[in-house]
């Protein structure tokens, strides 16, 4: 799924060289959102803003098939067994369709209408999926497509939820951090922190990491919502933070990328890209693969923040990079998906 795990870590435990060799390129119908591909076995799935979900073969990029709906698919699809799960947001009404599609048999298993548009990333747990809509309703559906619970936050939401220790946490447009029981859907806490949270949520260990409209990133205690630390980046944050064992990586719309100590929020390094950073990077042991809305992909030394190499594209790089089966997947306007081998 987006971020690989329900906590959203965006990390792969590999060391890489700084050379990319194109393996294949494919094209979809519409543009990408700031989501990512979803990988399952020998298939790669990706959504687009024209209401489609595509499947490609991992080895050669040939299209297996596509599903087409009226509306837009903003979020990375989820996979459970042979079901692909995704939400289609209506362009004309404040509602979405939640689709469970069996791609092995080619039939719709479940199709449910839900209130509000699903604009943020869904997450999958061991017993269901959790997601929110823009009008402030949070849902949990079972892996069979039936609704388990819903919670009405009554605040607009543009922050993707994350999951840890049976808690689903997210920010809302009122600048509150909200935590729900993933089992019952009951409110654990809702605490006002500051300006609106428009970026995604990341959970690692006992901490929630999230950035806000003012450019502040917070570490918040998962169990009770108390602030562990905060750090000002100076410009609006839309990116979901990425973490490894020791640090938090966050970028802002001014093109600045920061490495912060995970425990105390102290600055390790800052790098200016002169771009626009709103898509989450992929972290590895030695490099950060950083999408830049200014038609670039930066390879950054994770130890000191030096930009080792920059690759130029013919469009805005929108997808969070994913590394799967020795291939790096990059997506940019207008609907171009590429798979690269990473060379020493």
Defining traits:
344 residues, mainly beta, Lipocalin, four-stranded antiparallel beta sheet, 0% helix
Q: What report would you give on this structure?
A:
The chain is mainly β. It is 0% helix and 49% strand. The chain has strands at residues 19-27, 38-40, 43-47, 52-57, 63-68, 78-80, 83-89, 95-102, 107-115, 123-124, 129-132, 137-141, 147-152, 162-164, 167-171, 176-181, 187-192, 202-204, 207-211, 216-221, 227-232, 242-243, 247-251, 256-261, 267-272, 282-283, 287-292, 296-301, 307-312, 322-324, 327-332, 336-343. Strands 1-32-31-30 form a 4-stranded antiparallel sheet, with no helix packed on it. It has a 4-stranded antiparallel sheet with strand order 2-3-4-5, with no helix packed on it. It has a 4-stranded antiparallel sheet with strand order 6-7-8-9, with no helix packed on it. The chain is globular and about 50 Å long.
